[in-house]
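Submission checklist for the structure archive. All mandatory fields must be present; incomplete records are returned to the submitter.

[x] Identifier: Tat (Twin-arginine translocation) pathway signal sequence
[x] Organism: Nocardioides agariphilus
[x] Residue count: 89
[x] Sequence attached
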Amino acid sequence: MSDTSRRKFLAAAGIGAAGTAGLMGGLTGEAAAAAPAVASRNVKSARQPVVAYVEHHFSNRVHLMVGEREIVVHDPDLAARILNAAGGE
């Protein structure tokens, strides 16, 4: 994996794990009103590094690697936000 691809992946994973907070900053007007509310962390949220992985661009599955565990989340909105943040190629 090249450095450029690795950087894009890590940036997308960070944004996906952080929720929509980073994406909300640039939205104004109607787009901000239509955007979902920013999620807040609860007491059970991960305390270890988290890596998010979307296997296929058409998939709604997001694989989360947390420590030595893998969790599969079926969330088309989260998958789309991660792919959008990563940019196209």
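[x] Structure attached
Curator remark: The chain is about 40% helix and 20% strand. Strands lie at 50-53, 61-66, 69-74.
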